[in-house]
Design brief:
Helix content: 25-40%
CATH superfamily: LigB-like
Number of domains: 1
Strand content: 15-25%
CATH topology: Protocatechuate 4,5-dioxygenase, Chain B
Number of strands: 11
CATH architecture: 3-Layer(aba) Sandwich
Largest sheet: 11 strands, mixed
């Protein structure tokens, strides 16, 4: 089974040439990473990246791609954690597809990693959870553009916001155990999330800075409880929490590579916040 794109032509162009040109324009945008210094302090283990329409969040995504490009050797296996906006299918669902397709071609799924997560009992193979979801799909063309003809694999994992803190901890601990195994130490995790939604610009910068401070402290419980208790509109807070639990016992340093909002791209009174954050093991 090939998972076909569902937001091509909407979140990003569905024409290969237009898509390539759009991604390259994201790098060259004032907010993009082209010509900028992207910090690196150790072995890259993960990235938080946004997932809105490329015109708005694409420039921020390029900071994560630029950090990936600096890694030697560049990772060839990616676990992509994304929120399930539609809340359909399994609550913690790995894609059972053979490959995911975009206008730039097909990317194979990591069957070995999928089998390991499903065998844990905490993740289920389910196509419905991924059938209409954009948060993972929009990451793939950026990876395809970065790697060109070089091969890489992905494993999409969709997580619902209904997961409790205890559920997140169990999933995170399972993920941490799997990724620490010798067979999966080369896997890089991408956590797909936007930040404040429908928020005035100054307020978005303030609120999201507080959230990013918590992330940089690798405090999964504190981050989760802040989002839930204050009704923060961070759509990927569960994938972020799960990942923070997965790495909390490792010497991992988080770095805020870039923060922007849709209001930095287009003038409107309320918008969405986007962040690129790297996680590195020293």
């Amino acid at each position: 089974m090939i998972r076909k794109p569902v937001v091509g032509g909407y979140f990003y162009p569905d024409n290969p040439q237009e898509l390539t040109e759009t991604i390259e324009a994201c790098y060259k945008h004032t907010l993009g990473a082209s010509g900028k210094t992207v910090p690196s302090q150790g072995k890259l283990t993960g990235l938080i990246l946004p997932h809105a329409g490329y015109i708005y969040s694409g420039p921020t995504v390029t900071w994560g791609m630029a950090r990936l490009k600096k890694e030697e050797p560049m990772p060839r296996r990616f676990l992509i954690l994304g929120p399930n906006h539609r809340v359909i299918g399994r609550v913690a669902a790995v894609s059972p597809a053979e490959a995911w397709e975009t206008a730039l071609g097909q990317v194979k799924l990591d069957e070995e990693l999928r089998n390991e997560l499903v065998a844990s009992g905490h993740f289920k193979a389910d196509s419905e959870a991924h059938s209409q979801e954009h948060s993972i799909e929009v990451q793939i063309p950026f990876l395809q553009h970065l790697y060109g003809k070089e091969s890489f694999s992905v494993l999409p994992v969709s997580l619902q916001h209904t997961l409790t803190l205890s559920n997140c901890e169990k999933l995170g601990n399972t993920l941490g155990t799997v990724l620490s195994g010798a067979r999966f130490k080369d896997v890089c995790v991408i956590i797909s999330s936007d930040f404040s939604h429908e928020t005035p610009k100054a307020e978005a910068y303030s609120l999201d800075s507080q959230a990013l401070d918590m992330i940089e402290r690798i405090d999964p419980a504190g981050f989760y409880e802040m989002v839930v208790s204050e009704n923060r509109s961070i759509c990927g807070f569960v994938p972020i929490t799960v990942f923070l639990f997965a790495i909390k016992n490792r010497k991992i340093h988080a770095t805020r590579l870039k923060y922007s909002t849709s209001m930095d791209v287009a003038s409107h009174p309320r918008g969405v916040g986007y962040a690129a954050v790297s996680f590195e093991e020293k």
